[in-house]
Amino acid sequence: MFKVQDQLCTHCNFCGDRGPMLCYAARTARHGLEGNFPSQDENLRTAFGHTQSAGEQFLPGVPRFKALRDIVLIPELLGSQRVAYRDKLGVEPLYIHVNTQTTLGGFMVNTPVVVAAMGSTPVANSISVDLGMGAARGGFVYAIGENVVNMWGYEERIHPDQPTLKDRIRAFTRNQSGMGGVVVQQNVEDARAGVWKRVYGDPELKEYFDAGLIGFEAKGGQGAKPGMGGEVKVPRQQAQRLSGLYHFPVDPFVVEQSLYQRHSVPGTATVESLHKQLQDMVRQFPKARIWFKTGPYGDLMAQIQVLDEVAAEAGIRIHLTVDGTEGGTGMSPLGPMNEMGLPMLSCLMAIQRARKQYTHLDYTIAGGLVSGRDFAKVLCLGADGIAFGKAMLVAAMAGRDQFAADFAGESALVQAGAHGVVNFALEGVTNEARMLISSVGKYDLAACKLVEPLPAAGRKVSTIDVLALDEQVARMFGLLYAYDPQLWDQLGEATAELRRRQEAVAAVRV
Ligand code: SF4
Prior knowledge:
The structure is a single chain. Helices cover 39% and strands 14% of the residues. It is α/β, with parallel strands linked by helices. Among the domains are: 102-228 and 269-439, TIM Barrel (Alpha-Beta Barrel); 230-263, no CATH class. α12 (300-314) links the parallel β10 (289-294) and β11. Residues 8-9, 12-15, 20-23, 26, 394 line the site of iron/sulfur cluster.
């Protein structure tokens, strides 16, 4: 037998010396669309034609959280929307006909995928140019995290191997072709360094602001350590340079050691201060797209209400990323990482509910997500986009390993990493999502959105494109439960109502 691992490892070292290899992000970064298939052709024992497979029937270990694996897509054979689409297309539809171009957070994108904001931590910053170039070439969104200017510089490099904020922004602006966008995050320490003001006033970036390709993201929190600020370790000289800006538990002027923990503040907020911060962003930076990232907090709905109020007042859409507790990080103490915050699925449930009431926002979900299956399911459950953090780093590292020889010159490694990022996000994730979305007869991402609740044998369901394999998950999202004894009555009534609605729409169109 051979195993196929899709999940990301809790603690990832990029598969050690042999380079990212096993998980979905590594496979699709190296092999693109092929990475969506179980056979691994570089090895005869696992190669196509020499193996047979079936769907996973066992859970990996004992999962701690309910997850998207508890949800499946349910295609239909007869009379699905594929019929209407075939008539429109004039040919038999395929997954390649699913249109993934849309807008997300004010940007036109080829696919609503976001490189999640990752800040100054060396594991992310060192390959961050690959991420920006990949997002630009793929036509999706690249978010740049906190503390980059203080740690590595605005334009002039403080460390030869660590890109500055400008290097990271240019990785996107110099490789984009009008699709996608770059978003710059600012936390408390960044605000003290005037990061947004510098970027907005930078003459080199004016044309990109004019073109609507740059956004600013306020940071409310992140999944891996909600309630805590950014954390890294730095060598002594850097710790001494930064000692006035951040908290160092060990004094670098007194104690000599190789690395020092650097802690940034989480920031303090009230409903009023958040309202004012967002209003100030809109007023001070009218050409910037307005984004907000938050973590798996208990007062998530209150935060969403504030964002929606500001967006409605300003007549704009604000983009919100919600990062579930499964989210990744370059550094966090184990306690906060393991014991704080709501699971991604609970945050997704908040998005499903919020979007019915708070309609001036675009919603992106994050938190340990890795595949096209995750992408298709979060779209069907109410999200507008998906953000990948750890998976993007794996994709860039795998790309560097797989394609370095295919590129020449100084930026060969960066080009190779960017190729891995595009392979993962477009060839891997987006194509797999297209396969699943077309299987339920949908050929446009907007069509995945939740419909008016459907009657289903005495209850209401939000969609029949997806069902739950777990009863609690079914209740969370208003889905049918695959093992409900009444399932076929429920499906029968819901499908009939859906058909009736589709025919009514088709009749109006004729
Ligand atoms: S690259 Fe993937 S398989 Fe390898 S250690 Fe990281 S998460 Fe695990």
